[in-house]
Amino acid sequence: LSKTMVVDLYSNYIRNRILTLRSQLAETHDQLKAGPSVEEYRTLLERENALLDRLIVDYDLKARDFVGLCGDVSLEWIVADISCIFQSFVIVPLHTKMTDDDFIKVLNNCQVKCVICTTEGLEKRFHTLFPQCPTLKRVVLFDSIDDKEDECEWRDIVDTTAKENDLFSIIHTSGSTGVPKGAMITEGLWKTFISDRLSQYDPLVKIVFKPLCSMSERENVYHTFCSGGRSGICTEPHKIFEDVQLLQPTILSCTPRFWNVLYLEFQREYLAQLEKHNDSDRDHIRYKVLAQFRSMFGERLSYVTTGGAPSGDIVKRFLFDCLGVERVYEGYGCTEAGHIANNGGILRADVEIKLEDVPELGYYHTDKPYPRGELWVKTRTTIQGYYNNPYDTNKSLSDGWFCTGDIVELIDDRRINIIDRKKNFFKIAQGEYVAAERLENIYLSSLYVKQIFITCADIIKYSDQNAVMAVVVPNETVLIDWAKKMVESYINIKDLSENPRVNEMILLELKKVGEQQNLRPFEIPWAVYLEPEPFTVENRKITRTNKLARTVVDSFYRTIIDDIMAISHLRDGDFVKYGGDSLSALRLTALARSKYGMGNSIGHMRSSSSTLMKHDAILDPLIVVHDYKGECESNIFLTGCTGFLGAYLLYELLTQTVKPKIYCLIRWSKLDKIIEVLKHYDLWNSTIDINRIIPIVGDLAQPQLGLTDVTWTRLSFEINTIYHCGAMVNFVKDYEAHRAANVNGTLEIIKLASTSRIRINYISTMSILSLTNKTADEGEPLDDYHLNNAGGYMQSKWVAETLIKQAKQRSLSVTIFRPGMISWCSTSGKCNERDWLYRLFTGLITHGVAPDVDCLMDLSPVDYTSQVIVWIGQRTESIGETYHLCNTEKMIEFKTIWNAICAVMGKKPDYVEFNVWLDGILTQLEKNQQLNDLLLFQNGIPDDRNRKISSKNTKRVLQESDITLLDLNPTVFAHHLLS
């Protein structure tokens, strides 16, 4: 705003108004139309003249003197600013959160003669600085626009023809890595900033709530004035949402932090509404909550802007959904060069760029597919340098070019993609460079994360680091809500931050977010330190422009981060290797328990199955069930068709249905593999229509089942039923080993079914039930009492069924089948060579002796089980139901099976006491590796005698069928084993 433009402002827009909120705010929008809360430009002119009278007469200031301006957002700040512009003072805006040391450096560097304070109390701070600031003569408190004389001499506007290169203002950078640098803003630059953005919107209404010492907010105010608009001044930023609703701005400019807060509030409200309505009609609920948040901005909103730092993709998607893509504008620029790029990194027409290689980070302009490097720009609004700072000027500016300090890739001639700030990169062990700010913006999308700092331990001392670490300030409200359900007792947020269970939950939450955003493994924190105290300007961990003060934060947490790394070596046995001693070990062990929330084991912190399971068992709120896509063909999708039960399911689907094609997910493209499996189980015959079997190459453990987008979309149109039988089964490996195929695979099945409300027949397992003295009914909810002591397979199936049940609550058509132990085929004796039943009896055949135990086994023939699943799975009435497939009324004795096997072998059954039997196996194990499988039973032979399981649903529905469960015949099983 040049002096000439100030005159134009008053002559052309005298009838427009500037609205000031909060200090005298009326309760309703209608009351804003008149009254003491509205200041006209004419009245402002009188206020400014009165202040000028004091500055010139009482304080002996003249044109080109440097005047500091410090205060919270207020109308008084703007009045004081314009008053200084009238007299051609060089304004030095000062952030209220500056430290005294920074105040002294800035005041002395700029030789400030007078500081105007617009917030009461600040003047006392500056009075204490007089001895250290020799040029500072006056401190003025101007905290009320009514603080003026009724009659005062009119002051003419000084020097309305100021030269283009005359200093207008000194704007100081945030100082995130050191002392703030004073960017020199000339009269010409300021005039260009404003004139380039004059708006034609009518009405033009903006809200001012960010500190006015920042370039963007101050520019925002004068751009509005010179466009004849109105500015609502929010003097209490924590009430910004209320002010937005009251003022109904046409344009809203905010930093990513504002939009992050809004997004987290949306998530909380959305999840609360889902819980309130039992997850019914998620699309409608999400639309309703989006509409609720959209209404907060009023009816006049034209667009919103975000800038100052990159916004996370998740938050941007939320803004697009809430406001519409056309209303969201993301800008990129800086104080030193002005506006550089718009949405998507599209360069402004007047911006020139060049990339400089950064060999220490591995970025070169010759990189493929896109050139990469440090961005230098030349714009119409590039500053000439930093005031009284030749070192930083020469470092950042050269021949009209400004070094942004950002690493970018050049997508095409006029489009860039920002990777991160050069100063934010650090290197970990395997030579990978980490872009910290990019990761922080991603993790901030978590409900549980209020603030985060991504870092690593001392790379020289600990050269084996293969992933980042994190310092997290939790979202207190959200964490306490979680703790009420999950933590037995706690005192406050500090207590929670030191709780190992909370630490593990936050760590796994970061892992989940990282996986959702397809981050590389080293970009996902392996350890986290929870900080109960927020990063603030007061503790110097945040700059006055709300950016992370990395140098300060890194220094503050350096010892803690290195301690956590040392603890990991202590528990991995490498502590001495890295220079540790016994006293240090004792200290670190105590810290791990009492301060760092690391529990008893760093390994447990890195990978906790129990916490991970509960975390995985929450279905992503973003998964929405969509309606049918027109007339869908009645084809079937089957997983696990090359497994034991899966092969029999395929056979029954081909037998019980006539027309549907059966799409089979397998890892091979040829049909021969499926035919081979059917033949192996004696299921292949000439009546099977081979043309109905369609192999689909994929993998349960892969995202989107390993399918291409085309195949995925085709399936969603061509199937109406899924039989999900596929799973990894290993009774030795842990939960994480089963997680990809059994949990993530089921999640992908849910996503596929959600594309057009496809029915899921899910094959679970009876082993997920927590069997106590109480009978386990089919309709009872699952509990997790037994999970910590269960094997990895069972844990993964528990999580998978929990996800399926949540999918059912979101209106998917779901039927759950829980088979017990599936035994041999009742006609062929064919069995599953991978299950414990086969391993037990083949091992006994090798050993020749059985333990003398009295055990009953609940076994159901595979042909019966598959018949029931396919038949019930075709019935509409079974949707939403759960069916137990067991044989509790016809259980068979362990000795009956062994006796039948011995009879076929032509020998007398031989039994010995269990411990003698086990000792015999251990003695012979080195000589006979075939006995290895019997070690699975070193704690005893499975006994189902006391299991109480109800299968009323199954019995009831099967009364309408001709399916019969016959007595088990162990002889056919014996013949198969011995054949």
TrEMBL record:
<dbReference type="InterPro" id="IPR006162">
    <property type="entry name" value="Ppantetheine_attach_site"/>
</dbReference>
<dbReference type="InterPro" id="IPR000873">
    <property type="entry name" value="AMP-dep_synth/lig_dom"/>
</dbReference>
<keyword id="KW-0596">Phosphopantetheine</keyword>
<dbReference type="Pfam" id="PF07993">
    <property type="entry name" value="NAD_binding_4"/>
</dbReference>
<dbReference type="InterPro" id="IPR042099">
    <property type="entry name" value="ANL_N_sf"/>
</dbReference>
<keyword id="KW-0436">Ligase</keyword>
<dbReference type="InterPro" id="IPR036291">
    <property type="entry name" value="NAD(P)-bd_dom_sf"/>
</dbReference>
<dbReference type="Pfam" id="PF00501">
    <property type="entry name" value="AMP-binding"/>
</dbReference>
<keyword id="KW-0597">Phosphoprotein</keyword>
<protein>
    <recommendedName>
        <fullName>long-chain-fatty-acid--CoA ligase</fullName>
        <ecNumber>6.2.1.3</ecNumber>
    </recommendedName>
</protein>
<feature type="domain" description="AMP-dependent synthetase/ligase">
    <location>
        <begin position="41"/>
        <end position="387"/>
    </location>
</feature>
<dbReference type="InterPro" id="IPR013120">
    <property type="entry name" value="FAR_NAD-bd"/>
</dbReference>
<dbReference type="InterPro" id="IPR020845">
    <property type="entry name" value="AMP-binding_CS"/>
</dbReference>
<dbReference type="GO" id="GO:0016020">
    <property type="term" value="C:membrane"/>
</dbReference>
<keyword id="KW-0443">Lipid metabolism</keyword>
<dbReference type="GO" id="GO:0005783">
    <property type="term" value="C:endoplasmic reticulum"/>
</dbReference>
<keyword id="KW-0276">Fatty acid metabolism</keyword>
<feature type="domain" description="Thioester reductase (TE)">
    <location>
        <begin position="638"/>
        <end position="869"/>
    </location>
</feature>
<dbReference type="GO" id="GO:0004467">
    <property type="term" value="F:long-chain fatty acid-CoA ligase activity"/>
</dbReference>
<dbReference type="InterPro" id="IPR010080">
    <property type="entry name" value="Thioester_reductase-like_dom"/>
</dbReference>
